[in-house]
Write a structure and sequence with these properties.
- This protein has 8 helices and 11 strands.
- The two termini are about 30 Å apart.
- α7 crosses α8.
- The chain folds into 2 domains: about 140 residues, Leucine Dehydrogenase, chain A, domain 1 (Rossmann fold), CATH 3.40.50; about 120 residues, NAD(P)-binding Rossmann-like Domain (Rossmann fold, 3-Layer(aba) Sandwich), CATH 3.40.50.
- The protein is of the alpha/beta class.
- The longest helix is centred in the C-terminal third of the chain and has 16 residues.
- The chain has a 6-stranded mixed β-sheet with strand order 2-1-3-5-6-4, sandwiched between helices.
Length: about 260
């Protein structure tokens, strides 16, 4: 069987997803096409065309919440409880009579926490950005932590970036869900008072690549974790949904990481 797969987002200047899925297909002896679907806006008509022409696809910024909304309005679909709670998805699987949508980013975050032995309990966490990935993190960590969200959007549940100064010294964990640090924003610096994060323990930026922490100005004892483990884990989860192959993270992680290192 030949699988036609892709990743939907904007601007998609850089993505490792085609490389990861090509590797997974090769070790499973499968034939796939995995392409970038680069668009700056979507609607129901566009979504129907994508669902007609692709067996499955990933969704990245800025469409995770919008795709959830559009799919949730349709009748023939399956959305799991987590996706409904987050109101954001990153994986769609098109079956002959049904559509399955879910959020494998949850698996990616859990794998990152496990791989780096992160302690995200009873912490003051500041999340930068309020999109679909931010909503997923809020959902996962809000039960046992105190969560703040900073956004450029005016929302009663967020604070403005200019207000970060007042809470910076209370923050234990800082999570960046914005595209800053990734192309085409690789040269930009997060608009935060780095020097005021006096008690910061972990800086988790969901971007990836050798230069992701180039503009990081935190103290040297801060553990900096990028999004590569999350990326690979969620990709494996998506691949297993599409192909039912059951690839195990520990069996392939180092091989995928080595392959991606050649891309930097």
């Amino acid at each position: 069987m030949n699988y036609k797969l892709g990743i939907l987002g904007w601007p998609l200047k850089r993505t490792y997803s085609p490389i990861i899925h090509s590797f997974l297909a090769s070790i499973c002896n499968l034939s796939i096409e995995y392409e970038k679907i680069v668009v700056n806006e979507i609607n129901k008509t566009f979504l129907k065309d994508i669902n007609k022409n692709f067996d499955g696809y990933n969704i990245t910024v800025p469409f995770k919440s919008l795709i959830y909304k559009l799919i949730n309005e349709e009748s023939s679909h399956e959305l799991d409880e987590d996706s409904h709670e987050i109101k954001a998805i990153n994986t769609v699987c098109n079956l002959p009579d049904n559509l399955i949508a879910t959020n494998t980013d949850i698996i990616g975050i859990n794998q990152t926490v496990q791989s780096f032995d992160l302690d995200f309990v009873n912490k003051n966490i500041l999340i930068l950005g309020s999109g679909g990935t931010s909503k997923m993190l809020q959902y996962m960590f809000s039960v046992s932590n105190n969560i703040h969200v900073a956004s450029r959007q005016n929302d009663e549940n967020t604070i403005q970036y200019s207000q970060i100064d007042s809470i910076a010294d209370e923050i234990d964990v800082l999570i960046n869900t914005t595209p800053i640090g990734m192309p085409p924003y690789a040269d930009q610096t997060l608009p935060i008072p780095h020097e005021k994060f006096k008690n910061l323990q972990v800086f988790f930026s969901l971007g990836y690549g050798s230069n992701i922490f180039t503009n990081n100005r935190f103290e040297k004892n801060v553990l900096c974790v990028d999004g590569l483990t999350m990326l690979i884990a969620q990709a494996i989860a998506s691949f297993n949904i599409w192909t039912s192959k059951g690839v195990i993270f520990d069996d392939v992680f180092n091989k995928i990481k080595e392959r991606l290192s050649n891309e930097n």
